[in-house]
Design brief:
The chain is α+β, with helices and mostly antiparallel strands. The protein has seven helices and four strands; from the N terminus they run E-H-H-H-H-H-E-H-E-H-E. A four-stranded antiparallel sheet has the order 1-4-2-3.
Length: 244
Amino acid sequence: MKIRVNDKLQRSLTKTYWRKARKALAQTTAGIIEMSREMQPEALRMMVNGTKSNEYIRTYIIELWGNVGNQFAKDIQDRIFNRKDEILWEEMFRNYMFERSLLKANSILNTQQMEINRIIDIVLNEGERLGWGIEQISEEITRQLKRDFTVIQNYHAERIARTEVIGASNRGSYESALFSGVNMRKAWLTSGLPGVRDSHLFYESLGYVSMDYEYNTGLKFPGDPNADVSEIANCRCTIVYDVD
């Protein structure tokens, strides 16, 4: 029996969490952007670099992994045994959810800080070249932050949502398949869309392999967060199981 992870649901949840990611990213930088008009550039830079508030992003990651991982774990378990088992998958994922949220939130926060500092540097250099005063420079920093971060955060939000939904859904299905105790094998399945990594096409060509097989270091399934980011960022692949 072949059991394929629900890729349509993966795509639907990616859209949902894309919107949620945009909101979380906007909330993270809203205070800095609002205050940028009233602060001198160097003071603003110090505040940006000292920001440790990642609560919005952590909350987002915890919700995503708890919800998505839970849905896909239950789906695989139900399809293997053709019954509804009341297993508290969210509780089983709890420790991992919090570890993942801290790691990912810090990474995202660092990216946000670098983007803000990049904009500050651009405006400072341009202001000095044109002879602007501090007030005009601060106003221009605010204007560019508001303008550019709409585009920047939309791009980052899509990347975050796709990476995390694929990781959570495939991990949920994988853990559920292992927990079932049923003898099975797994296979990598690419999306068939343009831009698939050559390495992922190779993993797909391997066909069915043992459940503990690592496609690369730490990579047991598409989106596995234990793998290098180069293997999982923006990945759209999924997994299929061959159940004896």
